Each structure stands twice: as C-alpha cells, then as structure tokens.
Amino acid sequence: MHRNYLGIAALLGLIIILSGCDSVEREYKIVGEIIKQGNGRSDLDPKSLGYAENGHIVKLSLNDMGLQSLSPEIGKLRWLKKLNLENNNISSLPAEIGMGKNLIELDISNNSISEMPEEIKTLSKLKQLDISGNRLSSLPNGIGKLDSLKSIDLCNNNFKNIPGCLFDLHSVKTLYLCNNQIEEVPKKIQLLPNIDGLNLSHNEISKFPAFLCKMKNLTYLALASNRISTIPEEINGLLGLKELCLDSNQIAVLPQSITELTKFYTLKSDLAYGLQFNGNMLCKIDPKIESWINSFAAKNWQKTQICQ
C-alpha cells in the first residue's frame, strides 16, 4: 500500500511538472503574439525576452522593441511580476494592463503615452512605477489607490500641476516630477509622511515652500533649475537631509539655519555631491556659512561656481 502511495505521488508530481511546461509554452506564444501585433515582427525568440519560474513567466523585457502598441493579450500574462516596456513608441495602454494582479514593477518610460487607463488602479501589488518620458498632463484618480506603491517617476512629461491623486499614496517613498512645467508645490504634499526622496528640478517653481521643511523623512530634495530666490529659515527642520540640489536658481543668500544640516554626502570633485548650489548668485557668503560649505566641499571648489 505504501508503495502505491509513493507511485501516485510521483505520478501527480510528473503531471504538475508537465502542466507547468504547457503553461509557460502557452505564455511564450502569447509574448510572440504581443510582439507581432506591436511591431509586425515574428522572427524574435520570445524565450530570450522573458524569465519563468514555477511554470509561468514572471519577468518580461520588451524594451527597445519598436513597439507601436501594446496588445490586450498582455492581460493573459497574469503571473508577471516585472514588465519593462521602456523606449518604444506606445501611445496608449490597453485596459487589460489592469489584469496584471501580480505586477510589482512596471516601466513604461520613454514612450508616447498621453493618458493612463483607469484600470491601473487594480495593480494592488505594484511597488515601482516609471512613466517618465511620456506626454502626460494628468493622471487617473485610480493611481491614488495603489496602496503598495513605493516609487513613482513622472519626470519629462507635461504636468503643470502635481496631480492630486498622488497625495493619496501614503506609502510612497520616492516621487520624481522633474522636467515638467510645475509652478507651485501644494501643501497637500505633506500628506506623504513616508517620502524620503523628492525631485522637482527643471520646473517653473519660484518659491521654496517652508512647509517642505516639515517633511522629516526627506533625505533627498532636488529643486535645481527653477526660479527660486530664497531658502526658508525653516530649512534646519530637514535634519536627515543627505542631498540638497539647488543648482541654477536665483539664490543670493543662504540662511544661517542651513548650517545645522550636517549629513550631506561629499564627492572628490564638484562643490559637493549632496550639497549643490552651482549657478546661483551666492557672491557674498557669511564666514560661518562658508566654513560650513568647506566641511562638505572638495578642496578645489571655487566660489565662482556658486556666484554667476
């Protein structure tokens, strides 16, 4: 009897293995169809683009494929955890993208997308979302329902305002909105208590809002290439800050309170890796502040770097 049980168990194991093989083969055929519908090519080996485990494709790299569209067939790859669609010419995402309930990372950067589907709200496991380098000027409210999201990159788009739905992402830690047309940072950004990295460089921001200095978890803050002329005295509230990027603004004076920040990274070249003021109007520096800068800066830094 015991031998019979062992034989049955072995047979069931073999059936499961064969079933898994069938599943992954079917999924690779789906990948082939996605490619064919997207760029007309059928000469690529789908197996070279994906990684499978436990009988299913869990990682798929379709970057730099010349895809003009993304087939709704993508919704059939329900075990996908990582999907890379970077550097194509995709203009829209099918609603079926929302069927990827196991997606953890989604990269659709450097395409031609002007609108995101509302169905993206169903990607409940998504932790990293890169939509940089597209044509977006707004986001669907459903983005705010991505409770697992830790990082979102929206740089190089057409945003004039920070989309309100982002303030519902209470788990997000890094928010990148560089190279847009944003003029103002709203107070609601304080609703992101866990954020430690914020990049708003290359926008049209004219004021460094004092309320940003209440975001105690910030270690990286980038506001380079804006129109900022003053830094608030409250800057000393960001005691955990390791990188402050304020290059290419209109700053003429640094507040004394900034010397209370002591955790910046340094680099052998440039002014400092964590402390960046190049391209401002800092021609007269208080001796105490100059001493503070010297504690981070490379030995060969010149004042002309920050006085232009």
How would you characterize this protein structure?
By secondary structure, the protein is low in regular secondary structure. The protein has a domain at 183-308: Leucine-rich repeat, LRR (right-handed beta-alpha superhelix) (Alpha-Beta Horseshoe). It is 15% helix and 12% strand. It contains two helices and eleven strands; from the N terminus they run αβββββββββββα. The chain has helices spanning 2-39, 287-294, and strands at residues 50-53, 56-61, 82-84, 105-107, 128-130, 151-153, 174-176, 197-199, 220-222, 243-245, 275-276. Strands 1-2-3-4-5-6-7-8-9-10-11 form an eleven-stranded mixed β-sheet.
Strand line-up across the major sheet: 1-2-3-4-5-6-7-8-9-10-11
Summed over residues and divided by their number, the pLDDT gives a mean of 89
Uncertain residue ranges: 5-20, 267-272
* Residues in helices, as a percent range: 10-25%
The top-level CATH class of the domain at 183-308 is Alpha Beta
Structural class: little secondary structure
Question: How many helical elements?
Answer: 2
Can you tell me the overall shape?
Answer: elongated
CATH superfamily descriptor of the domain at 183-308: Ribonuclease Inhibitor
Amount of beta strand: 5-15%
**CATH architecture grouping of the domain at 183-308:** Alpha-Beta Horseshoe
Number of strands: 11
Distance between the termini: 89 Å
The gyration radius over C-alpha positions equals: 25 Å
Determine the CATH topology of the domain at 183-308.
Leucine-rich repeat, LRR (right-handed beta-alpha superhelix)
What can be said about the biggest beta sheet? 11 strands, mixed
Give, in order, the helices and strands.
Answer: HEEEEEEEEEEEH
